Protein 1
Amino acid sequence: MDAHWKKIWIGSAGNMVEWFDWFVYAVFASYFANSFFPKGNDTANLMNTAGIFAVGFFMRPVGGWLLGRVGDRRGRKAALTLTVSLMSTSAVLIALAPTYAVAGYGGVAVLLVARLLQGLSVGGEYAASATYLTEASAPGRRGFASSFQYVSMTAGQILGLGLQILFQHTMTKSQLTDWGWRIPFVVGAAGAAVIFYLRRSMLETEAYQESGAAADERGTIRALLRHKREALLVVALTMGGTVAYYTYTTYLTKYLSNSAGMAKPTASLVSFCALVVFAALQPLAGALSDRIGRRPLLITFAVGATFLTVPIMTLLKHAGGFWPALGLSLLGLVIVTGYTSINACVKAELFPTGIRALGVALPYALATALFGGTAEYVALWFKKGGMESGYYWYVAGCAAVSLVVYLTMRETRDIDLKRVGRDETEPARPDAVPAS
């Protein structure tokens, strides 16, 4: 197997398992929500589980800092091995968490600890895999190669939805809510153990090995502060993309069943089919960015999300059947592809090698915690307050902010990662990159 493809395959496979464990919580939340809280209002219990889901996001900046530092100081391989170990531990905890009937709120405490560990893991996984896939790719193919990050992320979610659909057709509702929801977490823990073994033998990237950064400067906040503009740019360009992504992925199934009145099995099937197409689009869009640049795709996403989110979400609420819901979901995800397919490489291209993992990890994790992690909770808050359409405008507004950033930033496609990596003393300014 070609060395580039071996690196991409191992990095992507691990990323898939990581995000399977991360997303399966949201996928099965509607089945275990009443197991950890007193029975009563289903929407209130979903909000409680969504709140715990959001807490995991607020641990991601800590994971971004800690594991980003490991990635810059010890190597991308070391960071990726550590992230999958943490994720395996958290999956085991959720699989064994006691219910409210057994331990009262003790089960909630276990869930909370597990989500904090998951947040720590994913906070480092995103940046480590984004950096690894970008650095491991051949020159002129970074957009294509790094797009596999969202292919693998989406594959993890597809596997989670696939298990849910399988269980919906092979288990009774009581079996699924009593114990069936635990099975995906057992599967995730086992998958993480396999990936841990594979990642121990993975190859380090040439860009990292050839970096001339001083050892005491690698992965430090001091070094990151010399790149404040790039860090702020990562936050701003992430804002709209992360809200839109979580709206059309993790929240979509709940929205279709809880707001549009669609049966849960049908809502799950809509999400599953839409995500399969979405995953297939990522390499195509990534390859396109290698030809025409990153900015055209980012701008297309932001324009679409700003002006089409409100009509898409409004029509989805009244879709009624499988095919209209699938068509609208696909439209939303096609728009989001302009962001997801290339955001990993765009962020990695902004920073020199010695600070690249931390530079991507920390500002991205902060933006995702503030906007992506709270998306589902904000949506349910608007719904509970009788103002559900307010959430549509919130998503559109976040996309509009990112649109301004995309219109003013410079192109990053042609940057030489190794050249930037050898010059650690000069901040890598976005406006110093030649526009294509």
Protein 2
Amino acid sequence: MGRACVDACWTGCSVDWFSDWAGDIHWVAFVSIPVFTGVIGFLINWSGLWMLFSPVKFRGITIPGMRELATVLPRKIQEVPGVLQGGIGWQGIVPARAAKMGSIAVDKAIAKLGTPSEFYQQLEPDQIAEHIVTVFRPEIPQLVDEVMLREHPRLWRDLPRPVRDAVVERVQAQLPAVVTRVTTEIGIHIDQLLDPKIMVIDHFQKNPALVVRIFRDFGQRELNLMVWFGFIFGFLLGIPVAVVDSIFHQAWLLPVLGVVVGWLTNALGMWLIFEPTEPRRILGIKVHGLFLRRQDQAAEVYAQIIAEDVITLERIGDFLLDGPRGDRTRQMLATALRPAIDKAAGPLRGAVRVAVGATRFDTIRDSVAREAVGRTLTPFKDPVFSARQAEKIRVLIARRTKELPPADFVDMMRSAIKEDEWMLYAHGAIMGLAGGFLHLWIFGVGS
């Protein structure tokens, strides 16, 4: 009987307390708190996306002495775009970390998508050889003429026209075999000549807008959802904030809780996009990272961008000739081309060698080979042919990206910005703090 009295008394007291509490509340101000936190949450995620992607290039002012001062600042401050360069301003986190994303993209994904040899084989070297022969053959007469006039003009002018034409024809006749040898040599040594990591990093660094495009082209829908979830998260988190504020009536509560709400809103938004990597059930609801739900569609978009803009036949040709290992490529190709010059002289090789001298003959042969190297790979820069070959790279990358474990797929997209996410959270906290002060200014303390 005593327990029943206690329960009845407790219930009555609770009802009385709730009635007193509800009666004292300024309901417009109370309801406005979750509305405020919802709007602030929306603005936090909307501006957070702007901070992620814009501007593509640093905008700000350079301050004398800032570069030197930056070296002694805390590491987190040094990570703010522009600080280490001596400026105060902003550059989107994603474009600012373009080179790093390129490095991680290679380590986490592209290196697993295929070796340089596999990429090269996808481009079908036989077709490349045929294209080179077609484009290069008309240039042979000019090439031979230029080299001979430079190295031994008198001999070349004294030769009868039919003999000179015969030399050119023999070089042209050797062309298919020579080009096949060249493309085969490239294929054999491609792993030493081509470094996809350097190629991707360099291209991303020079084209930060491309990294932004990768995110936006396949993730815009999820990024828009993140903005609207900012409102939902902010509104829901604002309900307990309103209750606590109405009970304790402390001026510092709303700004402090605003910081918590702002931080959590951004953190939940990032979690929503990338986590969990594998589908899970939380309270009976299936939860899976928004990006990861569409890995197959994302793989197609990602493959299209990489095949059209990053690992292209044109860029492979540029890297082979002008990249850090270009000298080695040129030497290898010249070595492959020299036998063609010997064969072009045919039965007269011995006589010609005696007539011009062994050293001069070797100089002529080597000059033709060196001149031919650059022109041999010029067809790599044919945009129409390069576009046709890109389709094969796209298919390979799309297939392998779809096969990536979800954790690797997330790492590829998130690792470059993960250590900078604190800036987004701090930005959310600052906006939450400002929202708390704004509400205090409009409605006063304790609703």
Protein 3
Amino acid sequence: MVRKTMEVFWTRLLKPPSGGHTVTVPFPHHVDPSSVTEPLGKIPSHGSRASLLGGSFDPAFRRGGGFRAREGYANVAPASKPGGMYMPNTHWTWSFAIVTLIQTLVTLGLECYIFANFQIQEIPNDSPSSKTIPTFLALYSFGFLYELVLVYDALRMKNTIQVIGLCICNIGLLIYGAVQVNQIRTAVSVLADMDTISPVVWAQSEPFLIIIPCIVALGTFLMTFVAWKLYDEFAWTIYKHISADLQMKRRYLTYQIYIALLKFDFFFFLGFTVQFLVLVSSAKMDAEFALTVAAIPVTIIILVCGAWFVRRETTAGMVCIILLLFAAMGYFIFKLFRMYDPLTSPQYLPARPSMTFFAIITLVLIVITIINACLCTNNFNRGLKPHINKKKNKSEEKTTELSSNLTQVPSRMMID
């Protein structure tokens, strides 16, 4: 009797009214659907209301789409495509990128004018002084372009250490710009005595050569200020990546310093080598010239392998890299000795101040790189490898489903 009464109650309650389309409502678990002789009742669904409980139509609600639509979530496309090219996405990352870009464009424009003016008025000759100005200007321009690449890489990887290193590197470019003034004055003076260039070239170039260090000094100040702001911004990213483990954060910091040093080692080694090949050894193709040319690809391989071994935590590989870095340190000490040895110093005179600057900076970087390589090797097998080798989570590569596709959570129960 009770069972029959329940069946009648449900069938009358769920009886469809005239008009409107219907949606099937599941039967309660305590009623046996097989005992029902009439079709199950249906509830009308009206397009003008989001719920039978009242209220206006909710524009976030969409029919279809399975569970997500039934729960009232709106399907919104992600803001950006996963795996796309990195773009600065905060006020300070944009500021750092814009400051370095403007600095690069202005200095490149001035360097190009000086180079063109020199090339137009010079009479071609084989003097080492004739190669000094083009080499300095080309190397200086390459320095700013390489720095711009490292800026993009530092912002993309949110590498605080590399950002700080870029500010220090900019100070190095500032010093080199100041050294460049005296070097070009000397080269123009030598060429003027040889009647291969007019002394007017120096008067035309000097104001621009003085402006360049001033612009770099201003850029260094602005980069340092923005880097201070980025330090706080990137600190949260490192915290999320490594967690609050202080020991692990120190190991990760050592790893970041080591990777950044390898990138700067490449530029200063290349700068020294190019000056040596063009200004010193270009006149004589001896064994030293051949070894210096061969050292360029070998150095690139060493730096790439140094980064690869530390990521894979290969102890034997890191020991080899450290030994090779000691060999590189001995090479630069030998070059410094030859530059100031009375027997060999004359061949280095056209570029000695600039080469000395690059050699000293490279030596300092190699010493610091060796120390950090030893620290990184000591940190092997202590839990850092998964952090530096793991791929980005989907939540980091693209916005998650809950964060991007769900515009709002329904505040009331909704019945389809």
Protein 4
Amino acid sequence: MTNSILIFPLLFLFAPIALTTCSLTLDNPSFPLTQAKDMIRDFNLFPERTVNVVEGGLRESFGDKKLVEKKFMFPGFVDTSGAASVDELGHHAGYYQIEHSHDAKMFYFFFESRGRKTDPVVIWLTGGPGCSSELALFYENGPFKIEKNSSLSWNEYGWDQASNLLFVDQPTGTGFSYTSDKRDIRHDEQGISDDLYDFLQAFFKEHPEYAKNDFFITGESYAGHYIPAFAARVNQGNKAKEGIHINLKGFAIGNGLTDPLVQYKAYTDYALDMGIITESDHKNINKRVPVCETAIKLCGTDGTTACMAAYLACNTIFSSIKSIAGNINHYDIRKQCEGSLCYDFSNMEDLLSKQSVKEALGVGDIDFVSCSPVVYQAMIMDWMRNLEAGIPHLLEDGIKLLVYAGEYDLICNWLGNSRWVHAMEWSGQKAFGATADVPFKVDGSEAGLFKTHGPLSFLKVHDAGHMVPMDQPKAALSMLKRWMKGSLSENAAELESIATSM
């Protein structure tokens, strides 16, 4: 939730504000771009291109086709597990031209389920804003794990074990997604959710065999903004019978930024609880909270300049904590950042920049943009908007929501997420609040605490930071399987498994 959420998930993420080098004034247009670049360096990512706006489009012409899709196999991949080949498993990569855009082409990976084709379709959105979903694909919940030499091996806890899995590079300009028209760079959730809706319409038109499957939206970090807006857009399209009906059953937000007004106020409490700051620090930093609150409220009504003011004012809360904490990894407070970097995801960038890989994926001359500072900056006015506001309507329509968070993440901490979930006004608010936390068990061991009432669930994941599927892959896969089937309880999952085998 601060100025560099990626997103990572995913990324997620937030980079701390350097108050000693950046002037907190509205007449400093380079400020958000500077913070975006800091965020990218936190992940040891150094994309050559800052955004994929390509004059004349892709040099390899695809004519008038709206779809460019091919089955692919990563060069050099060797399967030592005895599993089916990559080709047999139906791995796809390609582009869809976004219908209601000027010239946007959105890139994606699609991995058919290792179980059944009737398994749910799950889409994953990484945050940033402006970070590629390949971050999650290779380091969190995709079919592969990337090794230090940029080779690939199977991920036994990939979410394709239980779903037909989509990873999308969005917003346009991120990853391999591109446009020839700068007007396709989005500045708000309306534009982003409309593009994603058009993407899904194109996907299900090309793959009608999956259109009747249950559909779930998932993601991480700044996707706490994307996901509720996208879910609402799908629900709206279904009700209006705009196109192909999408069988939306639920949406899940991992360590996300959703309601800034609640979540920024939780920073100091979380930091105090975890021993990052002292009581005196807590009292002093909290003096900044009223200004942050006022600015966020003005952003919600006036927009534009007020939203920039909120971005600047509120992020001083986080940067103050960071200045006290020192070299702590704000994605996982158990760790120190390695040098000036918190993680090293450069192997992914190396892999996707290889010409042989680009040829296998069919991306032509497009460069891979791991995280785009241009997309990040374009979304600054969106940062402090409250995306919780549309969620109650979805819950009342019976669409499930799971909010989960690793307990050691500072940037989008579990406490702030828990507070906005509990504060959300809907018909089940009181009953949800009165529901007791119960252990989330995996193979008999406690992996977290959760509560559920009706369509709403909240899960605090033990021994995990910002990227839950990376830190606790087995628990994350169990979470997905159980939630999609209707209950996070291990006992319920066992009964389901028995019933399925009979």
